[in-house]
Amino acid sequence: MATAVKPADADPEAQGAEPPTRRSRSGAMALLGRARQNLAFRSVWSELNGAMGDLGTYIPIVLSLALSRNLDLGTTLIFTGIYNAVTGLIYGVPMPVQPMKSIAAAALSDPSFAIPEIMAAGILTAGFVLFLGATRLMNLVYWFVPLPVVRGIQLAQGLNFAMAAVKYIRYEQDLGKSKSMGRRPWTGLDGLVLAIAAICFILLVNGAGDESRSTDGDVADEETHRHQEGGAGRGRRVIKRFLGSVPSAVIVFVLGVAFAVARHPAAVRELRAGPSRMRVVRISREAWKQGFLKGAVPQIPLSVLNSVVAVCKLTRDLFPDEAEKAASATSVSVTMGAMNLVGCWFGAMPCCHGAGGLAGQYKFGGRSGACVAVLGALKLALGLALGGSMLRVLVEFPVGLLGVLLLFAGIELAIAARDMSTKWEAFVMLLCTAVSLVGSSAALGFLCGMIAHGLLMLRAWLVRLA
């Protein structure tokens, strides 16, 4: 009986092609290499310092909801820690994880908006954003929204952060009721002198921020000018390196923890070892309804505009060499939706990616995924080790110092709007900002900005026809 001869071109090895096992092995090695690259420390102290840049937003919102609505702090720390680690691994840039602010505002202003309603709002918002990402409709939104409108949203959000920060610094706060109290005293462990000293310290160390957008660019500039400078140039480089090695935000945060313990030493004895007990949140039909109307409806426009569109555009501004492979509108939508569709069922605060958090982490030195991965590891460790008992210490954290961190994050986000070079662009941006601030609605500001941009384009077209 004749033996069939296998054609040479049917043999992958004869053609020089890799067999499936080798291809899968090389693919796995490529993914592992990409993960190592994304989590590599470009500068240890800078990345650790950048990790603190988002806490001025995160801590006040989470503390307020834990005090007023019994949000489980331990569960929130665990899930947001996992979110931070995963986003750092995926994106390789300091992609933030922040509480959904419109949902938080609804909960703090309405006593009937409790944990089931909060979680329902988070799940519904996440489901909608995930749908836009999975169907790639978010890419259409991203390319459809003109840059001046995005800059208007960023400027409004940055000024919102900065104004809230000034209130934190000037006035004592009742975070449980989300209200400002009397004027903050000058002295004390949470006084004005402490906050002003922290502002001066951060300004001295960090300055107004580097004009260059990457650490590699800084190194290249130094190499270019090294041979052109004399002794004075070398002295300036030494001072710049020294100031760059000072972890200003880490120092401010550690100082705040020390002062929190000093303000209430008994809180340390009240800490309890072990994580919080997780339970699945039961959401009634009425909770779904209220969560949709009061939480999801105002949150969805903010999530689409600030947590996806603005974040992707800001990533391209800050990391132009990495943005194309790091954060797309589709991937940001999918990660934001997926993480809430898991955590919210267990009572973790609904979270999103925010342009303000990215700006804050960049301001203080975050340049890679290691920045948020370290923050995630810290949150996860605290959530597993101490659970909700951490609330006893954090509630004593000097609010003025949180205001200082939030102030620099807000200003850094607002500075992104400085690239509007024409009067047309500036007009649309400022109109969008003004409406967003006065109406307290990014959606309303977006609508007005889009209408104004469209009318200006129509006018320019009619002028060209004439």
UniProtKB/TrEMBL annotation:
Location of the region described as Disordered in the Swiss-Prot/TrEMBL record: 1-25, 210-232
Sorted UniProt keywords: Membrane, Transmembrane, Transmembrane helix
InterPro entries tied to this protein: MOT1/MOT2
Composition-biased stretches (Basic and acidic residues): 210-229
A single MF term (Gene Ontology): molybdate ion transmembrane transporter activity
Source organism (scientific name): Eragrostis curvula (weeping love grass)
Domain of life from the UniProt record: Eukaryota
The protein, known as: Molybdate transporter 1
TM stretches of this protein: 73-93, 113-134, 140-166, 186-205, 242-262, 370-391, 397-415, 427-456
